[in-house]
Amino acid sequence: MGGFTTNATIKSFGGRFLKLSHRAFQTRSTQNFTLFIPPGASVEKPAPLLIYLSDLTCSPDDVTEKGFLHAHAAPLGLALLYLDTSPRGLNLPGEHDAGDFGSGASFYINSTQQPWLMHYKMEAYITRELPALLAEYFKELDMSRPGRYKSVSAWAPIANPSLCPLAQKAFEGYLGEDREVWKKHDATELVKSWKGESLSCLIDVGTDDNFYKQGQLLPENFETAVKEADLEGLELRYQDGYDHSYFFISTFGADHVKHAAKALGLF
Amino acid sequence: MGGFTTNATIKSFGGRFLKLSHRAFQTRSTQNFTLFIPPGASVEKPAPLLIYLSDLTCSPDDVTEKGFLHAHAAPLGLALLYLDTSPRGLNLPGEHDAGDFGSGASFYINSTQQPWLMHYKMEAYITRELPALLAEYFKELDMSRPGRYKSVSAWAPIANPSLCPLAQKAFEGYLGEDREVWKKHDATELVKSWKGESLSCLIDVGTDDNFYKQGQLLPENFETAVKEADLEGLELRYQDGYDHSYFFISTFGADHVKHAAKALGLF
């Protein structure tokens, strides 16, 4: 179907869960993703879509197996798209040497640096190429709503990557040393000049998350920037005693799915 | 604690999820298990326990990550014990050669055959040794209720192992060739002479389960035996289009947890 290879079709919570792959134009590589189509979705009644960006080192299988988001999306009539963290099937120099750079760690940006720029065009792939293909070949998905995204939520995000060591390494590798360029991929920097509607943003951070405790996430900086920009619509929650695992993801999965479903007008 | 090694403590759905291992007396080997203690459980208010026997080839990590049973057990105040499928850390001849025999496939019985009988005493381990240890060292678990088990449920069980090729291989290896001995470990045979109370038994089978379609599960035989014994309390459900994966487990997880919780008097 449309160049997609269907690697598995599994019934889950009354809906269809598909494991798919295809040869992507933007990344000149194999891209894997998974898709949950809720029960009742059809050409006549297409389902809106929540797009999930997988965490560093993960594949789409991780969250689909451990996140348990289907359970909450099915009764709401919400479709779920789980993206992979990088192109696959390449062997660029050093690509597989570290968990925080190269394969499994694209940071979802368009690289401008050698040797990455020929393949690591994940921003173009996930914001334009793949949505257009899905709209063309999965008519039971509603890709027509005005505005590209209605809401955003995150578990333990790197909220200010320009200032966290883990992301600095990746940004330098993918984007070069000019830190002004980095700001275009940094939520805390971007929100300072946000001119759109009020935010619809939910963030959960576990207080026992080692990345948080090491200063790799910096949600406080994002919160401060939102306040200084006089924006509304951020809900930042610190979840006592939770770590960075999929048990944290699944515990609060219902809240994140409902957050998206509400913004998409499903209730 | 009590010879237990705590390999991880993770907060999940407000409760405590523990990865534990210990040196077991019955199996003369390392035994791994995981334990979910729901929020609110205490010495004063101990939680009753649902014991989950992992599927062939699996470790306790599989169901804890992919089954999503914590979500349903937490609000009901039910504790969950996830058992491993065999002793670990041994190297008996041929032990690791196949997925359906040896490591990962003890069938939870006491072997009487060489070379298994020195270690593969899983029935004694899971029905006596481990419950006694848990009662001693986890006072927030209620192990005191009369009768050993109050209910049973299963996803896609081998319901009549004496007649299915997959289990026949294992029974011959662990128990020898005498088929009368096999009957003591075959639910369909056992129910024929059941003299206890009415059953409290829930079984789900997916109609697209390859093991079911190949005649490895035989739930029909179990149902017939229950009817012929004039017993009540079996609910056997065929779930249309579901396979043998953890997506099947998680889809119906809420029903199985509630089935146990109800039998334990939690609602």
Q: Helix and strand layout, with pairings?
A:
The structure is a homodimer of 267-residue chains.
Chain A: E1 5-12, E2 15-24, E3 29-37, E4 49-53, H1 60-66, H2 70-76, E5 79-83, H3 122-137, E6 152-155, H4 165-175, H5 179-182, H6 187-192, E7 201-206, H7 210-213, H8 219-228, E8 234-239, H9 246-251, H10 253-263
Parallel strand pairs in A: 4-5, 6-7, 7-8
Antiparallel strand pairs in A: 1-2, 2-3, 3-5
Helix pairs in contact in A: 2-10
Structure description:
Chains A, B: Its EC number is 3.1.2.12. Chains A, B: This is S-formylglutathione hydrolase. Chains A, B: Belongs to the esterase D family. Chains A, B: One of its GO terms (cellular component) is cytosol. Chains A, B: Pfam families: Esterase (PF00756). The structure is a homodimer of 267-residue chains. In chain A, the strands form 2 sheets. In chain A, strands 1-2-3-5-4 form a 5-stranded mixed β-sheet. A 3-stranded parallel β-sheet of chain A has the order 6-7-8, sandwiched between helices. Chain A is built from 10 helices and 8 strands. In chain A, 31% of the residues lie in helices and 20% in strands. In chain A, strand 2 and strand 3 form a beta hairpin. The first copy, chain A, has 267 residues and is an alpha/beta fold. The model of chain A has no long low-confidence stretch (mean pLDDT 96). In chain A, helix 2 runs parallel beside helix 10. Chain A starts with a strand and ends with a helix. Chain A has 2 domains: 1-144, Rossmann fold (3-Layer(aba) Sandwich); 151-267, Alpha/Beta hydrolase fold, catalytic domain (Rossmann fold, 3-Layer(aba) Sandwich), CATH 3.40.50.1820.
